[in-house]
Amino acid sequence: MAKVTVDISRCKGCGLCVSVCPKKILGIDSKTHTEKGYYPAVCIGPENCIGCAQCYAMCPDYAITVEK
User: Fold this and answer.
1) Which of 3, 31, 55, 65 lies at a 20 to 30 A Cα distance from 49?
2) Cα(31)–Cα(1) distance, rounded to whole angstroms?
3) Rounded to two decimals, what is the model's pTM?
4) Do 61 and 10 contact (CB within 8 A), yes or no?
5) For residues 33 and 21, what is the distance between their CA atoms, to the nearest angstrom?
6) Residues 5, 65: contact at Cβ < 8 Å?
7) According to CATH, what is the number of the domain 3-67?
8) How many Å apart are CA 38 and CA 47, to the nearest integer?
């Protein structure tokens, strides 16, 4: 099983990772904000991750890691 981790201290909540996820397991956390005031991306369905790493490739801030 793959694991997606979002470093919320680096995430600016742009949503690019959310838009490219084929399994739609990423979302923007509208209840939590970072020290910089951004709403970060979160993994909302980790059990469905296929480890494709499209989210990792799309993230401009290197805030996402994918482990297989």
Assistant:
1) 31
2) 28
3) 0.90
4) yes
5) 22
6) yes
7) 3.30.70.20
8) 26
